[in-house]
Design goal:
The protein is built from 1 helix and 5 strands. It has one helix spanning 39-51; strands at residues 3-10, 18-21, 27-30, 58-62, 68-73. A hairpin with a 5-residue loop joins strand 2 and strand 3. It is globular. By secondary structure, it is α+β, with helices and mostly antiparallel strands. It has a 5-stranded mixed sheet with strand order 2-3-1-5-4, covered by helices on one side. The model has no long low-confidence stretch (mean pLDDT 93).
Length: 75
């Protein structure tokens, strides 16, 4: 069954594409794309790359309009 990964997205970031993990293990994804223009897709691709899974296995399940997004990852 898919696992759920919750991430904070920082769209329009010059730092991106990058992934940071804080002390609590929370993921922050920095993407160059603005939130409105493919930011979710870019975040999903970045997360897939970070986890080492094909991007087809990562899908956004919650938080389409929020900075806090929940992805389902099929291992």
């Amino acid at each position: 069954s898919p696992r759920t990964v919750t991430c904070t997205i920082k769209p329009g970031s010059r730092k991106g594409p990058a992934v940071e993990i804080d002390d609590a293990g929370a993921l922050t994804l920095f993407v160059r794309e603005p939130a409105t223009e493919g930011g979710d897709k870019a975040a999903a691709e970045l997360l897939a790359s970070h986890l080492g899974v094909p991007k087809s296995r990562v899908r956004l399940v919650a938080g389409q309009t929020s900075r806090l997004k929940r992805f389902a990852v099929d291992d």
